Fold:
Amino acid sequence: MKPIAYEIKRTLTSKFVIIMIIAIVGLSSLLAYESASTFSPSPVSSTPQVNYGYYASGTNLTMVGYAHNAYGQPVSKISVYYEYNGTFYSATSGSSGFANATIPIGTSHTVNVDTNYSYIVFRKPISTTQTPIRISNTRIPSGLEIIPGIVNPTNTTRFGYELMYVGQNGTTAPSINFYIGNASLNASVIVSSPSFSYQNISGFNIRNIYPSVTYADHNTTYAAVATNSSGRIIAKTSTFTHDGTPLTDYAPMTQKELQSLVFSGTSEILGFLIPILAVFAAYLTYGKDRTSGVLESVLKRPVTRGSLIASRFTSNAISIFIAVGFSMIFSDLIINHYFGMYLSTAFSLYFVWTYLVEGVAFLAIVYMFSHIAKSQGAVLGAAIGVFVVMDLFWSIIPIAILSALRVSSSSTSYVYGTIAFNYASPSGYSSLVQTMFTDKIGLISSQTIVPSSFGITAPILIIAGILWMIIPFTIAFVLAKYRD
Amino acid sequence: MIDIESITKIYTPKNPPAVDSLELSMKDGEILGLVGLNGAGKTTTIRMTSGIILPTSGRIMVDGYDIVLDKVKAAANVGWIPELPNFEPNATPLQLMNYFAGFYNLKGKEAEERIMSLLEQVGLKDHLHKKLRSYSQGMKKRFSIAESIIGDPQNVMFDETLNGLDPEGVLFVRNLMMNLKKRGKAILLSSHILSEIQDVADRVAIIDHGKLIKTIKRSEMKTLGKTVVHVTVENFNADCKKILAKYGDVETSGNESMIRDLKIPEKDIPSIPDELVRSGYRIIRFDPVGESLEEYFFSLIGGLK
Structure:
């Protein structure tokens, strides 16, 4: 077996490296999934809504309230209040979402009921304003109501309609024809001409309809019309173009948006875990072996000190490359699954390069300390110190120092200072690359800058990356060669 | 063959050199014993010769190659069995032997056969798949012997190898050294067990405070330093001791006595048994010999006697 093959196999099959690679790839994929699956150009509201209907029976009027979320799904524990003639009647929604109350109205044909509801957010009750409902003929139930704009839970860029039917004594809907058409057409045309969508439905109180839409529909507004079995229109949404509703707000993602997703997800986890993998793999593979004397059993072979440190370093660097490479591949596949497009090759290469630089630089720093510290404890302490100072707290250190120097966070000096700190640690390298792609800088008060004006250009970053990998390793190499 | 040419090792400038201008050579087909007190510089010398640490000055030539400047070629001809061998704890002997074999370009069947043969020789055949962390110190030492000679080096250095070995292991190491010597290898044995060195070494180098004090050939070992006389008398008593005391300092244990610092010339030694016989004592043993290596070693470095 070639010694380098053994070194690589030993590194890649060590429990620590296996666990870290699984953690890095798994967590970065999870974050990519979280970012991609929850991404929406218009965030979905978390506020519950209540729609109302009614029917009369004898001298009582039953007010029907249906509490639902933005997806049209029922919401329980919503308190609904009905006020009639100064008397409050209340009901709380159950798992079906209904909160009904019976109001004695005698023989009145026309009644006014004021409604409102309240819900709890973080143990704090929130009440809505009162909505008056005027019922001109209590003998006729409210029937069918079409509520547009509910969000498709399987694809939040697409919308549908919620149909609420309240019949006599709360009976379900008879046979109904439901049409969706271009809002520029009037209702009768939508019903008679070939429509965008049509279906015949019956037997429901609540029904959510999510028509099939494509990206091509994003510029069109739609209206919905319902007829009874004899073709008479019984409910409709507005058919004026400007009042119609789009059925999708989907817009293709730009590379910038995709890159932002990666920077806010995968990037965060790599920036934290790659240095951990690097410093501890360097300690376990090299620093510990060197200080415990295990390395002597290898150094006595026909091998130079230089090639021994180089082969161990290479095996560690390969483990970092594998972790970063697989994270990138899985993140890209997940993004493609949700947005139908891949990250650009240039960005992917930059991304892998960035974290390879970060990992390899941390590796080299710990290799360097392995030749300065004399005991296992000292090397381990140095490795932990390097991680804590140069990675964990590195983004906070410039803020603290610049604040102590009373440099205004909106000044050019502050930006220069932040960038200088980013160049001064491998963990700042990913921030510099992020700035180059997003034009943003800063941890707390993120500012937009022109990166090239502050020395952040691709050639400079590539040179900085190469220097970060070469300088610490060269020092470690020289120490290995000339120092016992 | 290894030539150590005036090597000096200074760990810290505050302390005296661990090894000071040491000149030594290990010759092919010879066992060189290396003796000295703790801190005399034995292990430092061996570690420099193995290429583990760098000499501050001087050079070490292994079969014509400088261990510092031509490490790969030089180290290929050196085997070093350290006093406290240390290996990757989670590796098995087979994995490590395969790894080490790669440094000597041993491949495939040749490597496999050599590995199995060596591990069998050192008695580890039944422990091939155990991780080294579960090995006892003695087992590690046996493994160390095997892995140190996997490349069939021309020069083998045993650094306190006999420490921690059971009697079977000691016998194995002694036989191994003799076998290697027969094959023309240069052997260095550093040990605190001076009697062991005296038994096997062709030459003994005594070092103290990093300096070579003396090199003794095997032929000189019988007549080291001053002569002592071992006398065993069957009917030993106090009067007998008085007679012996006339000839030098007497140490007695039972009926065995040893006369040191003789007061008479060596040519007159036969007068001792003459007087004993005349006085009616029956002599079982009368043996005038040189001092043992241990006695000589202590007398040389001015240590305890």
About this structure: Chain B has eleven helices and 14 strands. The mean pLDDT of chain B is 91.
